[in-house]
Amino acid sequence: MRNRPNYLAGLGSLVWLFVVGLPLYVMLIATFQSRTEYAANGPLALPERFTLDNYLNDLDDGFAQYFLNTVVVTVCVVGIVLLLVPPLAYAIVRSDGKATGRVFRLFLLGLAIPSQAVIVPMFYLINEAGLYDNLLGVILPTAAFAMPVCALILSGVMRDITPELYEAMTVDGASPWRIFVQLVLPLSKSGLSTIVVFSSLQAWNGFLFPLVLTQSSENKVITMGLYDFQTEHGVDIPGLLSAVVLSMLPILLVYLFARRALVQGLMGVGGK
Amino acid sequence: MKRHVRLLRTAVVGGASLAMTLALAACGGSGDSAGDGSGEIHVLVYGDATNKVEKQLVDTFNRTSKVKAVLDTIPGADYQSKLQTIISGKQAPDLFFNWGGGSIKPYVDAGLLMPLDDFIAKDPGLKSQFLPSVFNTAVVDGKPYGIPMRGTQPVLLFSNKKALAEAGVTAPRTWDELLAAVKALKAKGVTPIALGGGDKWPTQMWFQYVYDRVAGPDHFQKAVNGDKSVWASADSKRALGMLKELIDAGAFGTNYDSVKFTDGGSPALLATGKAAFELMGSWEYSTLQDAYPDFVKSDLGYGTFPTVEGGKGDPANLAGNTNNFYSVLKSTEHPEAVAEFLKLMYSDEFVKGQLGIGNLPTTANTPKFLDGSASPAYSTYQYDLVKKAPAFQLSWDQAYPPAATTTIHQAVQQFFSGQTGPDAFIAAMQTLPAA
Amino acid sequence: MTTTAVPTVDSAEKSARRGRPGGPVTGVGRPGIAWAAPAAVFFGLFALVPLLLVVVLSFTRWNGLGSPEFAGLDNWSRLLDDPVMVKSLWLSLVFTVLGVVVQTPLSILLGVWAAGRQRNRAVLSAVYFVPLLLSITAVSVLWRAVLDPNFGVPSQAKWLFGDGNLFGTQAGAIGVLVFVSTWQFTPLHTLIYQGAARAVPGVLYEAARIDGAGTVRQFFHITLPQLRNTVVTSTILMVVGGLTTFDTVLILTQGGPGTDTTNSAYYMYQKAFKSFDFGGASAIALLLVLVATLVSLVMVRLTGYDRMRSTMEGV
């Protein structure tokens, strides 16, 4: 009796595998053939003449530079988030001042501000600050918009630290700073890894801020590279799809080597 | 109470230090781009394959000039958006790429651009060395604001000769022949005309030509100048009726709104013989040459748009991008250097470079070098067309100010998909601001 | 609730800040607002200040050249008369609701399924995860190529796609947008549910099994109720994502055919950066914020995020 539904589930899981796998298959095989071949044989046929030219062309086109830029943006965003959010979450959970409560509500409100909504003034401000077409001009707003969710996740984790532990430390006369370093941070490791994963995905995949706030190829990030590729080399679908593959490689590597951390981190986005 | 003051202070100090970090970063940022200030002109161009030539010209210029030119590119479809957002700010270039006409009108109105009369007075070549029909596109309110800086791109009717032969039709010279060809091709199971409707501007090309052939070039000129009544004229309605007839005949198939030129969809249809015609800018040739060289060699045909019986437009009239232009900002600190740079736009080196990558410059010395072009026959054909054209209609979405583009694109798409009728199209066009 | 604690906290904090960790031994070492200040200031500068500017700009006329001019309620009255605006709000709602309705059951089923410890499930789950490794941009670009009517999959599967005019009809274009978001985001929600399903205490299932409940009944009577809170969290993420769908629209449909997929987020972008009507765009932006705030307020009420705060108050 317990087996029948499992067959059903198994079937369903294969259907989903097909849905997930088909475009990935199309993407991969397209990247190994010339455009003429792709247009002639359709998207499902295996390449007749295997080629790596698409990838090499993309790298020639500056994708290496875009990679580097994206890494810079991602590292900086994660850095800012890691620097600012843990103390914030700590204060949200442990402070009893009214002001902290207000700050928390402010961040909750922040959840409801879509980045599109502020893009016009953001452009204005960044331009006035002389940060237009500068990676810093992308990093700062990206970090700011990653903060509400991170604060929410991390404060949720910090709440789970039992009050007894705090009390034990304060009995020893520990300052908030010592409690933070010796108790809170070590016990929020899971939350910290979650916000690292979340904010780095946010930065790695960021689209709107780079779209509006940068222009030159020296400051292009990968998502912009892909977007511009569409209009510049529009005709070249295999080249475009190779660029897509290139854009996911680093995360794929992280996934292969640190799958557990990544998955656990993302599970954390949904709360404990 | 005391505690609050303390908190406030902490917050203020924290905020101030953050602001300072920002300010410092800002200095660092702008320091980079401003350079030493002793002499740089920033040349902003649309980023694509032509940048090769522009780079070469900048190098040539920098070899002799004390003031150095710096080439900045903005890739892709966002050129116009980016330009408008930086042109009045600190990041403004000294001179920039544009399409002339409505594309620079708002900047002229805002007093940002420099009329080029003085430059031309000092060096008459800046005007006399270019084909007048092209040069005039960048004349706004009677003053010249742009120097042609790339190739001309008339819209032509491309065809797949093999597909035509198989259906027993020849390239149509008149509208009726076109309709007949559509019927014959459809019977053969071929999509008569490839259309990248997903991009919207290829759809607009059909309107441009039909309106020109039916109502003549003055019609659109009046509309752009603010006479909204012309959209409701009998000619306008006749043009829409003809388009409707073509669409209803199945000329474009049924899924054109899912096809794009920019992702290679529509040219691929033409090259693989799944479609027989495509109305496209002259760049179609190099696009196809890139992706389907064999097709271009053996089966690619090209010609002008069919004539319309009883229409007011000359069959030799063209539509498309007359050329691209450099316009100069008033704020430039080195007008002399800019003038020197512009002179390169009719130099032999420029012409050879453009021809070498398949562009067709519109300078007086161009014919000398046509044999050295990437495809001499095609270049010569085009040059003659442009030279002889009584009128060269700038693309509608470039003739109107950029703000009108969305409305035009939506109107043409909705008309083609049958979502709206002639009245809605006319009403939409009447909402456009005058250029 | 907390009044009694305040004085001691206060002094502990002061002593801490003076760099004298000793302090009164009986006090509880609580962090002050200063701990939250840097984050608050940073966030304020890059999110709230722009938001205030949006409010200001929504009352001005500005095309990016020169300075904004005061325009009173002009932008707002134009918005109310603008059929595209009303349609765009409606479309935002459609995207959001369809997204939630499609993704939620799918990811619950997949999540619960993946929560099983069997080897084949682990392997398949690893594959399911891949779309999440791609950016929205990459996913959109990929699907645009895959769904090309003449050279993509539709040309090979005419029985399913007909003439492949997916981007030429409203239903088709909305379908594509919803499907593509589902393709990309279901893995995330699956993961969330998988985590939650694994956290359901095993004893509950054992008890049910002793009572003779089958898999289906266990699912509806134990798993689903236990996932209640997760559903809320996951739904919030979907709603926020749905309301602000933008990248996919820009890359896949550009709001077309006509204005048939022009949702508010895209309409705002179009008004700002294509039509250079920054005043009108700001008014839409503000409307977007108001709607999103309203929705998240309701959500926060439902989830008890705010109650979470108050229950911790006295700790």
UniProtKB/TrEMBL annotation, chain B:
Signal sequence, renumbered to the chain: 1-25
UniProt keyword Protein biosynthesis present: no
Keywords, sorted A to Z: Signal
Pfam families: SBP_bac_1 (PF01547)
Keyword presence, Signal: yes
Alphabetical list of InterPro entries matching this protein: Bact_solute-bd_prot1 (IPR050490), SBP (IPR006059)
Full protein name: ABC transporter substrate-binding protein
TrEMBL record, chain C:
Domain ABC transmembrane type-1 intervals: 89-299
Region annotation Disordered: where it falls in the sequence: 1-24
Membrane topology of this protein: Multi-pass membrane protein
Domain of life where this protein originates: Bacteria
Species assigned in the record: Streptomyces flavochromogenes
Predominant localisation class: membrane
Positions of transmembrane segments: 39-59, 89-114, 126-146, 166-185, 231-252, 278-300
Name of the protein in its database record: Carbohydrate ABC transporter permease
Family named by the database record: Belongs to the binding-protein-dependent transport system permease family.
Cited InterPro entries: ABC_transporter_permease, MetI-like, MetI-like_sf
The keyword Heme is annotated on this UniProt entry: no
Localization per record: Cell membrane
Keywords in alphabetical order: Cell membrane, Membrane, Transmembrane, Transmembrane helix, Transport
